[in-house]
Amino acid sequence: MAWDVAIPAGLHHYRQGHLGKVALAVMVQSGHKLEQKEFVTWADLAGYPIILPDRDRQPIIYDHYRRYTAEAGFEPVIASDVSTMSDALAMVAGGVGVGNAPVVPGLSYPGVSILRQEPLFEFNYELVWTHALPAIKSLLKLCQQPCSKKTA
């Protein structure tokens, strides 16, 4: 998988449309004062230690964060760069800092509140690959099938 803005030329990609959009969100420890806000702005994050995806792994997220905080008039205090979303959630739950990352709707983690961020910034996901392996062909078939909704 790759961000749509990061797809190198020459790779195959899923032409049935993008897989989905995921909004950037703010993650705070349960009980944090930012929970009281209807939405969180970039300026609201000034002064809080921030947990971000590692720049080597997610340069688009990291660079956008730095750009938007500069536009909001502050230099972020990076508490930690993390490799995985699980690491970010655990650090937020432990009170290390405030997280900022794309969060799929419905995600929950004990001790963490996911807050809406404004202005809305969404990442588009597309499926890309270099070789047409059988596993990829199988995945593409699944992507073309409509999702069924179960009823209780």
UniProtKB/TrEMBL annotation:
InterPro entries: LysR_subst-bd. Keywords: DNA-binding, Transcription, Transcription regulation. GO terms for cellular component: protein-DNA complex. It comes from the Bacteria. GO terms for molecular function: DNA binding; DNA-binding transcription factor activity. Residues 14-145 form the LysR substrate-binding domain. Belongs to the LysR transcriptional regulatory family. This is LysR substrate-binding domain-containing protein. It comes from Shackletoniella antarctica.
